[in-house]
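ok posting inputs for the zinc ion job
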Amino acid sequence: MPPARRRAAAARFPEIALPAVGLAADLPAAAVVAVPTRTADSGVVLAGSLPAAASAVDVEALLERESAKGGAGELVAVPVEARVLLLGVGDAAPGDLRKAGAALARRAKDDVDLALDLRGLPLDGPALHALVEGLLLASYSFSRKAEPKVRALQTITLVGPVGLQRELDAALTVVRAVCATRDLVNTPSGEKSPAWLAAAAGDLLKGLDVTVLDEKQLAAKGFGGILGVGQGSSRPPRLVQASYDGGGRTHVVLVGKGITFDTGGLSLKPNPGMLDMKMDMGGAAAVLGTLRAVADLGLEVKVTVLAAVAENMPSGTAQRPGDVLVQYGGRSVEVLNTDAEGRLVLADAIAYADRDLKADVIVDVATLTGAMPVALGKRHAGLFSSDDALAGQLEAAAEVSGEALWRMPLVEDYRVALDSPVADLRNIGQPKLKLQGGSITAALFLREFTGGRPWAHLDIAGPAMAAGDSDEVTKGGTGYGVRLLTAWLAELARTSARTTTRTRTRRSA
Ligand code: BES
Ligand code: MN
Ligand code: ZN
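and the output
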């Protein structure tokens, strides 16, 4: 069997094991030890005490000599034979600890055992969660080398917070889901056909309800958008549907763009624009990873995931600019640019979420427009929403998870740019109107298929893939969206549980 097929059959997530993280009451022997430093009004302070091997060191003088400030991620080596590091944690807020964890894991990557002495820090669940994300997500790697570089770092011991085992387990669950998502995004498109991605979704979501529609079933049911985009490729499209019911009353449907490679189709991209396009399924990977995390955490929510999967290729069977396709549900679209393919596959899935699944909330995640990172850069996703309450919830989840987003407007005056003389819609804004705002017209196109249901769209074209390592992000697929959506759903589970209790109390009173 060729290696790619073998790998697909035996997919393990993440492909390269992460260091093991454990809690302990005391420092383990023979480990690199890190002790936090914090920023304070009086300057930098040591939060805790140095291990015995370094007890003779004058810390204050050392910090002064190094011009240390204690900012998040600052590292100062203590000049003793045993390896001892001072790790700046700023204010010890979750965001600071995520950064600090990432910096420490990178610094200690060639050591085998690492211990972080947290006994001098007040550390709650969210703080530990963020710290663990930083430590492990920065340790992630992906390789297709014959002999992948092995990471030395095997164990990380967090000394002190022994009462937070449940929070540690929850953080590890989220981290594993993020790394699985990164693996999917990082897999080269030669391996990653639509059928491969559908099978990988089944592997990742083992134990959950997963169904896959193939091209014949898609045709029979009228998924014209997914079929139109996929028809140029020798590797036919798929629609993956997966669900988890933890008992919530709100049925949340998460929709992901799953273009396994985006050449642009006959509206072919130039080579530089095509280079990273194996990541054009980052939205689908994120919603699949989120479902894994949500199910493993056992959240009290009801979630269905739809991954609209196709390869956008030019060929003799490809759709042509000017073709008209019929989306799921019956609306026709004039395809004027085959490179605006994401909205076509998403529209089918969103219409299905509305008409068949009767979703209470729809959130789609997509590497949709090159204009989005032009506006917001590489760390923020664009958030578009028809519902202020939903938008507010997602903004709050961004804050908690450290996955940033910024709300964008659905400009009503731009809607006319999508009118077509021959079809119900056109797939790109009419250039003659010179409206610009390509990310906005793309979102307005999607809104047409939501049936007026509460809906949010996350354009993750910027943060889905990173050009290099920074903080908890590693070069390549970032897994953006998993932490954000999991935090949102965890909060949704908490608040709807609270509402239920309140209603019950009121009724019995
Ligand atoms: N997958 C791209 C968007 C993209 C570009 C994501 C760069 C990440 C980095 C999408 O399918 C696309 O090609 N969009 C076009 C739309 C245009 C033809 C209206 C774009 O943004 O140029
Ligand atoms: Mn495209
Ligand atoms: Zn695309």
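notes: Residues 1-10, 502-509 have pLDDT under 50 and may be disordered. The first strand starts at residue 20 and ends at 24.
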